[in-house]
Design a protein that fits this description.
Elements lengths: L3 H23 L4 H29 L5 H8 L5 H4 L2 E5 L9 E3 L4 E4 L4 H14 L5 E6 L7 H22 L4 E9 L12 E5 L2 E2 L10 H8 L9 H20 L16 E8 L6 H10 L31 H44 L5 H24 L16 H9 L9 E6 H4 L12 H13 L3 E8 L6 H22 L7 E7 L10 H7 L1 E8 L5
Helix pairs in contact: 1-2, 1-10, 5-6, 7-8, 10-11, 11-12
């Protein structure tokens, strides 16, 4: 059978393993961060074991050796489900330390001070506090009311400390032994009356109708018509009245024991009546009657067995099963945490992929570099998803939360729909002086040598349209320069059409005059450069 320290060590070790699994497999950390987390978990686990061992030795002392041996001799398994009750009877030194009556285990505390250590020892022995603590008083025996009140006060304070140190759940009970009938045999079964949970289970409190019965029960002349149950009720009612008036101050300022924080008050017959006892003197004072001394009805060792049925029955699972339940609960908690982590990572992954795709689609083809960069990012995203599909989804994205496969199709469509940017148009520049005479649009006879090279380039690229643009310098009238540039462009076009099989629609002409100089017109050389005919080959593709 595993002990509680072993169970704690197993649960702690399993918790550390689960935390390590979460850190190493589910969290996306850098190697340094991962190492720090592992070190913290290991050190914290070892520290928890050390602190637990220290607290186990300091907080709850073990039971006395004699009591521990007596409890060890009981049948196995009783310490878990059997009610355990601490009881204290001031002045009783002959009671057995441990009694098992078949329904409950009774531990006798010789004095109130030992109540605290016994409660702590019981908590350490069976891993929960005692079920009840009982203070038993015999007001018909002894001669000192102050001793009874002092014992009640000491018990009350000791019980409060025991609840603090051993944990809650200790119900408190007050047991009062009433004088037994003189005619009753010593071995007569004890009859118990009591107030349970603050309500009278049977009529045990006094009222005016019981005054006559009290006088007859304790007076010098008993009425022969009273039955024995009536005598018993009268004696018990007298004890209750005495406790309310004489003993209640020991429990506080309450005027009724039913207002105390007691789970119950039991009255039982198991003692003789000493004429000098607090109860006898109180009766004499109340009724002006001399009580009859009754012989001892045996030692006051009758346990208040009526308490046992009133205690809550606590059924605790064996320690191995509870340990297994803790392990299962921790595992379920770790799985829930892993699923939550996976959900966060999957949301981040989907948002990142969607952002990359949206950004790529928003880039126009005119931004060639940005478009190509976005395309490369989409390729990386698709490769990542394909790797997950072939090699398996990592733990941090798994646990049924992965939804990345739904983005493979749109990523693939975006990648396959990409067209590389068009190459820049080819521009051929022809010197106007080599083609035309000054201020004319008539081609020179030797202009063929300059135009042949351009014609070869045009015929080698039939898929490209040809834009012919004429340019002049700033000499003369701008309007005249504009018209001159236009007709020169037309002249070149007509030559190309005549010398090839290309239709006129394959060409476009434009005259710019002196509006687009290459360089400043401040020198003759620069003016010569600005006088030109530009032939641009433009790909014949639809606009995107």
């Amino acid at each position: 059978m595993p002990t509680k320290p072993l169970s704690f060590a197993v649960v702690l070790l399993w918790s550390a393993c689960l935390l390590l699994a979460l850190v190493l497999r589910c969290l996306q950390l850098t190697p340094v961060e991962r190492g720090v987390c592992v070190a913290v978990i290991v050190v914290a686990s070892l520290g928890a074991l050390v602190v637990y061992g220290i607290l186990q030795r300091r907080r709850r002392p073990a039971l006395p050796e004699a009591i521990a041996q007596a409890l060890g001799a009981l049948p196995a398994g009783l310490h878990q489900d059997t009610p355990l009750i601490l009881w204290h009877l001031p002045g009783e030194v002959s009671a057995q330390a441990v009694v098992y009556d078949g329904n409950a285990i009774w531990l006798h505390a010789p004095d109130a001070e030992q109540l605290v250590s016994l409660a702590q020892g019981v908590r350490r022995w069976r891993d929960r506090a005692p079920d009840a603590a009982v203070l038993a008083l015999a007001p018909a025996r002894g001669k000192d009311l102050a001793a009874l009140s002092g014992a009640a006060m000491a018990w009350r304070h000791a019980l409060r400390e025991a609840k603090r140190r051993a944990g809650g759940g200790i119900s408190s009970w007050l047991v009062l032994y009433a004088p037994a009938d003189a005619a009753a045999a010593p071995d007569t079964e004890v009859c118990w009356r009591g107030i349970l949970d603050g309500a009278a289970k049977r009529a045990t409190t006094l009222d005016e109708n019981l005054a006559r019965l009290i006088a007859q029960a304790y007076g010098t002349a008993r009425s022969p018509v009273l039955s024995r149950p009536a005598h018993r009720d009268a004696r018990m009612a007298a004890v209750i009245q005495w406790a309310q008036e004489e003993l209640a101050p020991a429990f506080g300022q309450s005027h009724s024991l039913r207002e105390e924080r007691l789970h119950g008050v039991l009255i039982g017959e198991r003692a003789g009546c000493d004429p000098q006892s607090p109860l006898a003197r109180w009766l004499a004072h109340r009724n002006a009657l001399a009580p009859i001394a009754s012989p001892e009805a045996g030692h006051v060792v009758a346990l208040p067995l009526a308490i046992v049925p009133q205690l809550p029955r606590i059924r605790r699972l064996p320690l191995p099963i509870r340990t297994l339940a803790h392990l299962i609960a921790l595992t379920a908690l770790a799985i829930a945490a892993a699923m939550q982590i996976s959900a966060v990572h999957n949301i981040h992954l989907l948002n990142t992929l969607r952002d990359d795709l949206t950004e790529y689609l928003s880039i126009s083809y005119s931004q060639a570099d940005a478009k190509l960069k976005g395309l490369n990012q989409l390729k990386q995203d698709r490769e990542q998803l394909l790797r997950y599909a072939h090699e398996g989804v990592p733990w941090r994205l798994g646990w049924g939360m992965y939804r990345g496969e739904g983005l493979l199709l749109p990523l693939g469509q975006a990648i396959t729909g990409y067209s590389p940017p068009l190459p820049p148009p080819a521009v051929l520049t022809l010197d106007s002086l080599a083609l035309f005479a000054s201020n004319t649009a008539q081609l020179k006879p030797d202009a063929n040598r300059s135009l042949i090279g351009a014609l070869i380039t045009i015929t080698e690229n039939p898929d490209k349209r040809v834009l012919i643009a004429g340019h002049t310098d700033d000499t003369g009238n701008p309007s005249s320069n504009q018209k001159l540039s236009e007709v020169r462009a037309l002249a070149v076009r007509d030559w190309f059409v005549a010398m090839s099989n290309l239709p006129t629609s394959h060409f476009a002409t434009q005259g710019y005059g002196d509006t687009r100089p290459l360089v400043s017109n401040n020198t003759p050389e620069n003016k010569a450069r600005n006088r030109r005919v530009e032939i641009t080959l433009v790909p014949d593709v639809p606009a995107r």
